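Q: Hi! First time doing this. I have a protein sequence and I read that you can turn it into a structure. Is that right? Here it is:
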Amino acid sequence: MTHDAVDHPQHYTSHPSGVECIAVTEHMNFCLGNAVKYLWRAGLKGNAIEDLEKARWYVDREIKRLERIERDAFCMRKPCAKCGFKDCVCQHLAEGA
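A: Yes, that's right. Below is the predicted 3D structure, encoded as structure tokens:
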């Protein structure tokens, strides 16, 4: 593959598999794709530690996004008719009361 700085930068095309990074990351959401991008190029374009820190930043951001989705979904559930708590795991449910 021809390497050029715009269409096929070497730090994204030099993987031993022959796969270009964008061929994988374009199927991911923004944060996961960027995390993979920084892992892919770690040490090939500048400071490897900085690339790994950037990857971690995007992974942490994706975790926070997913936690918000789970929290919001939890808050939308119906409260227990017996105790009022949402997604109740009270003893009375375990007893079938």
